[in-house]
């Protein structure tokens, strides 16, 4: 963290800056524990909360933000359009419902969650364009501060017509899985990359090489994975419902992984390392 305990922010567009670590909330679908986890994250110092319509916890996130007493303007809030919604009017309507659930009148970052939902797969390109145009309308009204996508591969990004540039692409990223072609493409085109499942959903934390590196830096395997994302210029969105881990996961600014160890972590990338669905073939 920077001086004053504040998370460093990265510029997304002319006016918008995003804190370099976010709190992920996928699977936090029990309303009470979702609310408590987000509150703990906010009290710990997180100022960036990542939710989605499909996580079914927007009410809890909104309530936690309200209960925290932290001014809305200090919190960076992301939500995502679910797969069953596409098209102009549908997007505008769903967005207003999200605002209501989140008890706010704007969203800092609004993402199309998946590029090619099963329901719309045969016409996803035109529908994504219509949807994105609706998001641009909300952007021009100041109701969304930055626009983005999630799980978009290079071809999906190329297929999208935009007047307001895509600021963010949120993708699965951790030492066992990185789509470097898409990451490099995003970075070359000024698109900030965010990492979901930066801890490999907790499934890679027993890896002997990650443990060895963690011991070397006197840090936890989770902290090594978070630092690995940060040092690749990627914004990690770790999720936890455990207070100590929520704290642990943001306490990563007092060490730096050497270039040599970054290369060792990079070589852990596996052909079958992806845990989540493939963007072109997802079964939802
Ligand atoms: P829990 O929520 O019970 O704390 P990801 O962010 O990659 O999706 O990973 C989330 C998973 O990793 C959850 O199962 C979470 O468990 C676990 N997790 C989160 N932080 C840590 C940590 N610091 N140490 C170990 N496991 C963690």
Characterise the protein shown here:
The structure is a single chain. This protein has 284 residues and is of the alpha/beta class. Helices cover 38% and strands 15% of the residues. It is built from ten helices and ten strands. The protein has helices at 31-44, 58-68, 88-102, 124-140, 154-159, 180-188, 208-217, 221-231, 243-248, 259-266; strands at 9-11, 17-19, 23-24, 48-50, 76-81, 107-112, 144-150, 168-172, 192-196, 234-236. The strands form two sheets. It has an eight-stranded parallel β-sheet. Strands 1-2 form a two-stranded antiparallel sheet. Helix 2 packs across helix 3 (88-102). The mean pLDDT is 96. The site of adenosine-2'-5'-diphosphate (A2P) has 18 residues, from helix 9.
List the helices and strands and how they pair.
Layout: E1 9-11, E2 17-19, E3 23-24, H1 31-44, E4 48-50, H2 58-68, E5 76-81, H3 88-102, E6 107-112, H4 124-140, E7 144-150, H5 154-159, E8 168-172, H6 180-188, E9 192-196, H7 208-217, H8 221-231, E10 234-236, H9 243-248, H10 259-266
Parallel strand pairs: 3-4, 4-5, 5-6, 6-7, 7-8, 8-9, 9-10
Antiparallel strand pairs: 1-2
Helix pairs in contact: 1-2, 2-3, 3-4, 7-8
The structure holds adenosine-2'-5'-diphosphate.
